[in-house]
Write a structure and sequence with these properties.
globular; 292 residues; 2 domains; Fumarylacetoacetate hydrolase, domain 2; alpha+beta
């Protein structure tokens, strides 16, 4: 299934996509308004509720009549992994980037999250705006100390992430968090595609384009640490909760590692696609004077 968060008639809603229409599930539980994290916390009962809604006779909203939000508009945690693709390590070899022995985690502050088709800001404080197409994992079950062989079972589904990065700010601190957390620099979606539709997450094609030019092309089979290994590693440290998002790394082709570097400018259109997960597309605009 494809679960989504959206805005309709000025109100945030959640639903399930079926043949180009949306079944609104916001009030599927009597006396309670559901958000995506609420639905995920219901576990298998929530997935079963969505399955019944998808095939039921409830009123449907045309997809083109809504504004898609990030499937989890404000996750409890949003983390990424650096240097997790073989081709990315190769293109960064001249910078001395070595093959990591363990996953290199960093935080993206959740205020960076924005919708799959919303604009992303070129910051006032930098011109080194970059893109990275990544497979995102959405956690579906509260868990800790998960074994790698069981890790895929705690996944609710997958999303396409653009790990937008401000490279000079990323290098200001060893944690990379500042350069990964600017407002609007966390678009993902377009839907939360449940894991049963994806199967093996290590066989997915990843591509990104800037203004129609193919910039990145790779596969999740390049990952040094698989989706299961990443969950097993992180869950040794902290409890993972429904709605947490983990971006799993990016193949070669980001702008900052081209020779010479080619950073994003206002007016550029960044399109990203992952097999069976979907497409997101964001236009770069100058950071506005005021927060919307």
């Amino acid at each position: 299934m494809k679960l989504l968060s959206f805005e309709h008639d000025g109100r945030p809603r959640i639903g399930v996509l079926h043949r180009g229409t949306i079944v609104d599930m916001t009030e599927a539980v009597p006396g309670r308004k559901l958000g995506m994290i609420d639905l995920l916390k219901m576990g298998e009962a929530g997935i079963a509720l969505a399955a019944r809604a998808e095939t039921g006779d409830a009123p449907r909203i045309p997809l083109e009549a809504v504004r898609l939000l990030a499937p989890v508009p404000r996750p409890g945690k949003y983390l990424g992994v650096g240097g997790n693709f073989e081709s990315h390590l190769q293109e960064a070899a001249h910078l001395g980037l070595k093959r990591p022995q363990h996953p290199i985690w960093f935080n993206k502050q959740t205020t960076c999250v924005t919708g799959p088709f919303e604009p992303i800001h070129l910051p006032r404080v930098s011109t080194q705006l970059d893109y990275e197409c990544e497979l995102g994992i959405v956690i579906g079950r509260r868990c800790r100390h998960v074994a790698a062989e069981d890790a895929l079972d705690v996944i609710a589904g997958y999303v396409v992430c653009n790990d937008v990065s401000v490279r000079d700010w990323q290098l200001r601190s060893p944690t990379a968090t500042l350069g990964k957390s600017f407002d609007t620099h966390g678009p993902f979606g377009p839907y939360l595609v449940t894991r049963d539709e994806i199967g093996d997450p290590q066989t997915l094609r990843i591509r990104s384009w800037v203004n129609g030019e193919l910039r990145q092309e790779g596969s999740t089979d390049e990952m040094l640490f698989s989706c299961a290994q990443l969950i097993a590693d992180l869950s040794q440290v902290c409890t993972l909760e429904p709605g947490d998002v983990l971006a799993t790394g990016s193949p070669r082709g980001c702008g900052g590692l081209r020779q010479p570097p080619v950073y994003l400018r206002a007016g550029d259109v960044v399109r990203m696609e992952i097999t069976n997960v979907g497409v997101i597309e964001n236009t770069v605009i100058d950071e506005p004077d005021r927060i919307a």
